[in-house]
Amino acid sequence: ILDAVRTEGDAALLRFVRDLDKADVAAGNLKVSEAEFDAAFGKVDKDVIDSIRFGIANIRHFHEEQRPETMWLKEIRPGAYAGDRYTPIASVALYVPRGKGA
Asked: SS3 helix, strand, coil % of the chain, rounded to 5?
């Protein structure tokens, strides 16, 4: 999917939406405007938004606690070191099915 989108752009996105989600989406409907986001946000109950924010805070705190204080490194032979290094992921891509049945 990623390679196709890199080379074909929106045409690949539309093809995958059609083939995987069985949804017919027009090219003009791929991008959601800021006004559309704001309008949708305004329709969500405040308690739902508060619950989502609470969940986000819990998840963030949990994963922050998982991070090691420092990089673990051990000299396994003179001059040879091995250890763990934690590196954040710069970006990810997800396919989240959302076809007609969703």
From this structure: 50, 10, 40
Task: Flag whether 87 is in a domain.
Answer: no
User: Residue 59 sits in which domain range?
Assistant: 1-82
pLDDT in tens, 51-99: 999 999 999 999 888 877 777 888 999 999 998 877 788 888 887 776 5
Statement: residue 101 has pLDDT above 60: no
Q: Is residue 89 part of a domain?
A: no
Q: How far apart are CA 21 and CA 96, in angstroms?
A: 9
SS3 (DSSP) at 17:
helix
Domain total for the chain? 1
